[in-house]
Every structure is written in structure tokens, then in C-alpha cells.
Amino acid sequence: MRTIKVGLDKRSYDIHIGPGLLDRLEDFLPPGLSPRCLLVTDAHVDRYYGRQVSSKLEQAGFSVAKAVVPPGEALKSFASARELYDAAFDHKLDRKSPVVALGGGVVGDLAGFIAATYMRGVPFIQLPTTLLAQVDSSVGGKVAINHPRGKNIIGAFYQPQVVVIDTSVLHTLPPRELRAAMAEVIKYGVIEDASFFDYLEGNMDRVMSLEDAVIQKIVVRCCEIKAEIVENDEKEAGLRAVLNFGHTVGHAIEALGNYQLRKHGEAVAVGMVVAGRLAVSRGLFKDAELNRLSRLLKSVPLDTELPAEWDVQRAVELMVQDKKAYQGEINFVLPETIGRVRLEKISPEELKAFLLNL
Ligand code: NAD
Ligand code: GLY
After folding, report:
1. Which of 16, 221, 264, 277 is catalytic?
2. CA–CA gap between residue 122 and residue 115 (Å, rounded)
3. Last residue of a domain, which of 169, 190, 213?
């Protein structure tokens, strides 16, 4: 097992990573909690791990109210939030009662939003069960629900008190979810760590067959990088934006497919290649490096081509409306080399001209 600290003064917390950690959940619970908790999970995850986690929490002395929500992005809605607030009332949660998220990024974002807002904030515990949640969404405190006009628009920065990452749960994850999350793993190599990128190039088969030691190594490295970035820029005043590499175009691809056709990571994979091509066109990034990135993504395998539903005009409109755009300029994270990126602004006109020429 490895433990990584996210140092944020009074809001600091540990991330524990290793196989079988849900079986030792009681070892990682923070002190000072009230003995009632709300366990939020989705129906798939509940089938595999709901009973195990409930009984661990009960053994640790909690009275557990379990809220099982239907799986899928639609869950991050006002209606689901309302149901969870009702459950919190029904179970008489107080200000020290934890909300425990057991699931992927959808459950984590929704449960975190409840934890951030119920009684202006109650303790929050993350038990992420997808690779995406383990390497990205459970760390760093972004919590949100969707508004019908925009994804992740209603939310907060609200840090968990602990993140317990049981890497064994990845064995039940559908293979497509595993592949999609690898885009985010590869992203960390490009933005911050060339030797991690090299490691992924040499070990993709072992990653995809979920060898314990290899999975532990990659989850640890991603969490270390994310923790360091969040420690330096918790609320995304600047640096944290590097985590959005591939996301500007990626979000547009997801939205154009109505969040049905492409998974987040699948869209980010294409977005990273498009950002790489933009960087090449500006003389910032070498063709050979772009080829390495495409090759690594394809080895997962992930598709790196723009999808059929891609419409340049509409995509640029979506990028201008994105919450990361500012005063009509679109913010892009562009690679300079594998292991280093920079932030650049681009006007909608220039971006449109570039995309039409791809
Ligand atoms: P998800 O939560 O929808 O999970 C994917 C699917 O896998 C679901 O059907 C789920 O039921 C199932 N599942 C989860 N764990 C499983 C397991 N161990 N075994 C079997 N099935 C399992 O998807 P996701 O990719 O984890 O998260 C996507 C969400 O994360 C999006 O809403 C996105 O906005 C959000 N996100 C948030 C942040 C952040 O910083 N807060 C970062 C990235 C993404
Ligand atoms: N997933 C991007 C961030 O946490 O900032």
C-alpha cells in the first residue's frame, strides 16, 4: 500500500492506494465523525461492493443509510441531489456525519456536491471504483452536478477527508471504461512526466491486463502529480488548468455526441491529438513527439480521429461557451514536449481556421 498526502493546510488529506483496501476500510476512516453516514453508490457498483462497504462501515460503528442511484451521467442532476438531501434528512445526518461516495466519477461528483452543500458542508469520503475516478476525479475536490445547459456548471471546490483507492475493484470494471480512463493516465505523462510516459510505452500490455504492481504504480504516479498540482493551485487560478490538456476539444466532442456517443476519456484522447497538432502548427511541438502520443493512445487501444458527428462551427461555439473560456478567447493547453505543456489563448476565428484545415 502507498499513501500520498494532499497538503492543503487544514483541508489536507491522505490518499491510500493498494489492492484489497476496502476490506480494511475501518483503518482509514478519519477520527471525529458522527456515527451516522450516507453511503452513495450506483446500481452496478452496489452489486459488486455495496454489501462489503456497508458492513465495513457498520463494523466501524456507523448506522448506514445507503442510497443506490441508477448508473450514468444523467444522475448528476438536481433531481438526484434532491433525493439525496431527503435521504440525509431521513437518516438525521448532522454536521459531522460523513457522506461516503462508492463509485466512479459520477457518484463521486454528485455525492461530493451533497457533502459540500448539506448543512453547508459535512465530511466527505471518496472510495473511487473506476480507473478514471482513481487517477483523477476523486482527488482535488471538484464536485458538481449538471445544469441542463451545461455539464459540471453547478458545483464547488470541496476536498474529501480521505480517499481510499482499492485497485482490486478494477477487475470488474467494463473494459471500455478502463480504456477510456487510460487517456487521462497518458495525459499525466504528457503534462508532467516524460519518464512516466516512457514507462507506459513499455508496459501497456501489463497495464491493460491489470497486473497489481503495474496498476498500483500508475495510480500512485497519477495521484502524486494531481496532488502536487492541486496543492499549488487548488481553485484553478492558473497552473491547475494543465489538467485540462485535451479537454477543450474533448468536451466539445462529448457535447456534440450528446454525452452518449463518446466517453469522457475517449473524447480526451482525440482532444489531446488535436491539441498536439495545433502545437505542431504553431512550431511548439515536434511531429515525432505527436506521433509518439498517437501511437501510445492507439496501443490502449483508443481512437485518435475526430468523430463523424464533429461539426467545426458548432464545436467552436461550444468551446467559446465553455466555463474555461474567458472574454471570448479559448484557453488551450499545448504540449511543448512530452512532459511539458504551456497555456495559450486562441481566438475563435483562428481555431476555426485551424480545425477546418485538419
Ligand atoms: P461513471 O461514474 O459513470 O462509471 C462508469 C461505469 O462504470 C458506470 O456504469 C458504473 O456503474 C460502472 N462502475 C464503476 N466502478 C465499477 C467497478 N469497479 N466495477 C464495475 N462497474 C463499475 O464514470 P467515470 O468515468 O468514473 O466518471 C465520469 C464522471 O466523472 C463525469 O461526470 C465527469 O464529469 C466526472 N469527472 C470529474 C472530475 C473531477 O475532478 N471531479 C474529473 C474527471 C471526470
Ligand atoms: N479534472 C480536472 C481537475 O481536477 O482540475
Report:
1. 264
2. 5
3. 169
Catalytic annotation on 291? no
Q: Which ligand is nearest to the CA of 177?
A: 1
pLDDT at res. 334: 98
Do residue 187 and residue 165 come from a single domain? Answer: no
Lowest mean pLDDT among 72-81, 99-108, 134-143, 208-217: 72-81
The verdict on 161 and 225 lying in the same domain is: no
User: Where are the strands (E) in 142-291, listed by range?
Assistant: 142-147, 150-157, 162-166
Average pLDDT taken over every residue of the chain: 96
CATH of the domain at 134: 3.40.50.1970
The residues, any chain, with a CB within 8 Å of residue 312's CB and separated by 6 or more, are 352, 355, 356
Q: Which of 16, 44, 56, 142 is catalytic?
A: 142
Residue 140 CA: nearest ligand 2 atom is 4
What domain range is 117 assigned to?
2-169
Q: What is the mean pLDDT of residues 197-211?
A: 98
Q: Is the CB of 221 under 6 A from ligand 2?
A: no
pLDDT for 233-275, tens place per residue? Answer: 999 999 999 999 999 999 999 999 988 899 999 999 999 999 9
The answer, as to whether pTM is greater than 0.90, is: yes
Average pLDDT over residues 320-324: 78
CB 315 within 8 A of CB 192: no
End-to-end CA distance of the chain: 45
- For residues 64 and 191, membership in a common domain is answered with no
Listed residues 110, 141, 169: the one ending a domain: 169
Q: Give Dmax over CA atoms of the chain in angstroms.
A: 62
Ranges assigned E (strand) in 158-308:
162-166
215/165 same-domain check: no
- The structural domain count of the chain equals 2
Instruction: Looking at the CA of residue 226, tell me the nearest atom of ligand 2.
Output: 4
Tell me if residue 44 is catalytic: no
CATH of the domain at 288: 1.20.1090.10
Q: Do 22 and 133 sit in the same domain of this protein?
A: yes
The pLDDT of residue 129 is: 98
List pLDDT tens digits, range 67-95: 999 998 888 999 999 999 999 999 999 99
